[in-house]
Design goal:
The protein is α/β, with parallel strands linked by helices and 191 residues long. It is built from eight helices and five strands. Helix 1 packs across helix 3. It is globular and about 65 Å long. InterPro entries: RNaseH-like_sf (IPR012337).
Length: 191
Amino acid sequence: MIYLFDIAYNIAKQELPFTQFSTWVNTEKKHGVLLGDTYINDIQCKNFINEIAFHMERDLREAIKQSPYIGIMFDGSTDASCTERENICIKYTENGYPVTKFLGITEPEFCHADGILSSLHEKFDEFEINLPAQLVGVSADGASVNFGSKNGILTKLSSKMPWIINTHCTAHRLELGVKDAFRNTYFDEVQ
């Protein structure tokens, strides 16, 4: 069973269709791995992946609870259906070392600061994160919805938790710097 779970994990990690599961299992059988004849279908692959995801989320939830301090990073994107999504990562300490993990994706009902903040809070509540007790830093891109001085998300968070450190995402700042450095060149046509 451990081998079947490992194969299912790799299917998910490689973002392959679950229908590839039986092909991988049969290849391993050719190599002499004893995998039996049951649980070798795409439905079982989905079940294995769901079980793995459950345990990974449980472990993440526990690690976050154990960490005295956390930082959050979020960024908005639009999916193929033109629906706004917020991607959230969390930084916490584990055995004295900083760890960054993907927390999840939310779908804000509205794309203004209150709508996005509400969807972020839903995800934090889902993971039972105590923001006032743990949050020390927030990072986001420089969009006005995030950094607006009156109604930005970070301004709203700072008004309730004045100790947090707000950071303009380094990757976004680097992107803007490169874009400025190559202004009025053929790079203007690159997104």
